[in-house]
């Protein structure tokens, strides 16, 4: 029987992936607020989808995907948004829209890429993708 080697704990390798993701979402929320966005929901989940941040930029309802990488040598975090991820965000956006009454506002999908360096490198892309991209 092969010997099982334990994985290093988060304490010996730095923050867990979940902790890094939460930190990135906090940075993203702060960045959006500094850009004049008004956050109305975070981590909206439904069957088959999730949206990290839902916010208004003026009168436009924005569904914001947050992507982060701990190491800048691993590339651009925004490049990790693939067709499958877009589908999950769009599914969750449709679910969120079902909760709204009255006419729907103008909408768009934004993305924030964060490289968790010190200081963090934060890039906001408005209209990062369209619902028709799925």
Write the layout of secondary structure elements.
Elements: H1 10-13, H2 17-34, E1 38-46, E2 49-57, E3 60-69, H3 83-97, E4 107-115, E5 121-129
Parallel strand pairs: 3-4
Antiparallel strand pairs: 1-2, 2-3, 4-5
Can you summarize this structure?
Helix content is 28%, strand content 34%. It is α+β, with helices and mostly antiparallel strands.
Task: Give the overall pLDDT as a whole number.
Answer: 89
* CATH topology-level fold name: Trna Endonuclease, Chain: A, domain 1
Task: Give me the side-by-side strand order of the main sheet.
Answer: 1-2-3-4-5
- Record field, number of beta strands: 5
What portion of the residues fall into strands of 2 or more residues? 25-35%
Main β-sheet description: 5 strands, mixed
Kindly state the percentage of residues in helix. 25-40%
Described by the principal axes of the CA atoms, the overall outline is globular
Distance between the termini: 45 Å
Q: Can you write the helix and strand succession as a string?
A: HHEEEHEE
The parts where pLDDT drops under 50 for at least 5 residues are 5-12
Could you say what the CATH architecture is? Answer: 3-Layer(aba) Sandwich
Tally of structural domains: 1
Report the top-level CATH class.
Alpha Beta
- What's the helix count? 3
Rg estimate, integer Å: 17 Å
The SS-based structural class is alpha+beta
């Amino acid at each position: 029987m092969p010997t099982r080697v334990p994985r290093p704990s988060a304490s010996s390798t730095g923050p867990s992936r979940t902790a890094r993701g939460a930190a990135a979402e906090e940075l993203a929320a702060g960045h959006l607020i500094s850009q004049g966005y008004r956050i109305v929901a975070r981590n909206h989940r439904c069957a088959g989808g999730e949206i990290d941040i839902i916010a208004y930029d003026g009168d436009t309802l924005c569904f914001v995907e947050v992507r982060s990488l701990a190491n800048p040598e691993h590339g651009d975090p925004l490049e990790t948004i693939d067709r499958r991820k877009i589908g999950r965000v769009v599914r969750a956006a449709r679910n969120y829209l079902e909760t709204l009454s009255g006419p729907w506002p103008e909408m768009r999908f934004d993305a924030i890429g964060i490289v968790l360096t010190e200081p963090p490198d934060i890039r906001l892309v408005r209209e990062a993708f369209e619902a028709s991209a799925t």
